[in-house]
Amino acid sequence: xxxxxxxxxxxxxxxxxxxxxxxxxxxxxxxxxxxxxxxxxxxxxxxxxxxxxxxxxxxxxxxxxxxxxxxxxxxxxxxxxxxxxxxxxxxxxxxxxxxxxxxxxxxxxxxxxxxxxxxxxxxxxxxxxxxxxxxxxxxxxxxxxxxxxxxxxxxxxxxxxxxxxxxxxxxxxxxxxxxxxxxxxxxxxxxxxxxxxxxxxxxxxxxxxxxxxxxxxxxxxxxxxxxxxxxxxxxxxxxxxxxxxxxxxxxxxxxxxxxxxxxxxxxxxxxxxxxxxxxxxxxxxxx
Length: 287
Prior knowledge:
The chain is an alpha/beta fold and 287 residues long.
């Protein structure tokens, strides 16, 4: 039996699924990316619940419950591949009585597009999403942001924390020094190095797990949100991801003056409202 099936947060995930099913409402599944936990979505969940949806904040396999636990036991993050994480979320979604909306950030945004390609979401939002096979731009800022992991091949199998300086560049470059330190202390946790190596090799590995079915007929509408000042996933990557999928019912928007931390910084509500407005165009929570 895998550790993910027995971890406390898995029990929490299953309890959230039961609660969502009991409401009869349309679920919204929020998927975090590297260096964050499900708690990063708590304010979003309150907004979507007020709007009539049933929000769920499931973790990646073996996610600790708190930032303190994560920093005390960083080893639990090691060895999590994109395929493993995608299958984990697809399995959880399969336990829902109603097809959900899926909202993801960074590598969570990649997972939201994978679930869409598998026909598991009625609408999706990918916020500063990590690139998939076929997305070709590789800006220098992305390389610098990823160098904390990719700079050492041994990190493939390791857990990699970010120093404050690394987090400042890759996540919180668009906020004040005071806010940046607060966000680092409040949200930052170690992360698996493997997904970044997988993404870096996606376009040269024909068997990569970092791929999205962009042609499936039952994908549902997708919105890609890009932060104007994002160093990790700049506009060039987000727009290339959009163009690979634009033949379906998709849209892209850029949030001015925002970095990779746009889901957790002082302007998170603008991003949440942008996502909610798009979703409401296609999904009636009362239906």
